[in-house]
Specification:
The protein is of the alpha+beta class. Helices cover about 40% and strands about 20% of the residues.
Length: about 300
């Protein structure tokens, strides 16, 4: 059984790591962009980012003044048992979010949508979000802390099947140019594309594609992987660089996740996981062992299954 004390200590550590430590895949992606960028201004921005991340690690302070919206992803083995059940787990995650908002500290970004009341702890109705996924033949639980910006850098469109891949590319490029010109996303970003599913599932897939896959990974479906490569190449040729300056360094990578959809439509969503790529992962085992790692491993053969 996974004990609440273990969950609490792990959740607190994940909140700190997500706020302060940039994952290695994002670091390497930005280094690659800095080496390839030919324009002075975006190259200066990229190098400043890399330096800022080092200072944040040394001082153990959040790497960005806007610390985003803390949220949780939970992948549970089918045989996992938690002290207090999953209600106990959710109570721990809410408590850890509130406690670490003050301790790290994080900016309390969550407010009531009408009264604008702020409880100063990033908690409230529906906050933090806790999303679940499940795996067969396992008794562990993966906790993934993600601090994602909650304002801009997101769009959605219902395409027709006849729009095809060219329509997806056109929508992607339209979004990139708007994000860059209007300052709606902090580039360079990992861009997640949700393709198919219902309207709400399409949005969820896009956000997960952005936040829960390491840069450089590719979808196991060859057609989807080819689309990822094409969209990344398109981003590099868009003329947009880091922070919207003229250049070629707007995108660290593009990830596409797909779901079977209505025969008459092709919903597409896009999400930017900004340069402050804030995520941290741990696996909690039934014997009390906790393994921290960098790859969320959210998408698995089971989660992407097509058969019954």
């Amino acid at each position: 059984m996974i004990l609440l004390d273990t969950l609490d200590a792990t959740a607190g550590e994940l909140m700190r790591r997500a706020a302060i430590d940039i994952p290695p895949d994002m670091r390497e992606g930005v280094r690659r962009l800095a080496e390839a960028e030919t324009e002075d201004l975006p190259r200066f921005v990229l190098n400043a980012m890399l330096e800022n991340w080092e200072v944040a690690e040394q001082d153990r302070r959040a790497m960005c003044a806007d610390t985003g919206l803390p949220r949780w992803y939970v992948k549970a083995g089918n045989d996992a048992r938690v002290e207090g059940g999953f209600i106990g787990l959710e109570r721990i995650l809410r408590t850890a979010t509130a406690r670490e908002t003050a301790a790290i500290p994080l900016r309390p970004n969550r407010v009531h949508p009408l009264s604008r009341r702020d409880l100063n702890n990033n908690c409230g109705m529906g906050a933090p979000e806790i999303d679940y996924s499940f795996e067969p033949d396992a008794d562990w639980i993966d906790l993934i802390a993600v601090h994602k910006g909650g304002l801009f850098g997101t769009d959605w469109r219902m395409l027709f099947p006849g729009d095809g891949i060219d329509g997806i590319k056109r929508f992607f490029l339209d979004c990139l140019l708007q994000f860059g010109k209007r300052g709606l996303a902090c580039q360079p970003a990992i861009f997640g594309i949700g393709l198919g599913g219902s309207k709400d599932a399409c949005m969820v897939l896009g956000k997960q594609a952005a936040c829960l896959r390491p840069a450089g990974s590719r979808h196991p479906d060859p057609q989807i992987a080819a689309l990822e490569d094409d969209l990344q190449a398109l981003a590099e040729k868009s003329g947009m660089g880091a922070m919207g300056f003229v250049g070629r360094s707007m995108s660290v990578d593009v990830h596409v996740e797909a779901a079977y959809t209505h025969t008459g439509g092709m919903p597409v969503s896009i999400h930017a996981f900004c340069l402050s790529s804030r995520r941290a992962v741990a696996r909690l085992h039934a014997d009390g062992q906790v393994d921290f790692r960098d790859d969320p491993q959210w998408f698995t053969p089971y989660s992407r299954r097509e058969g019954l």
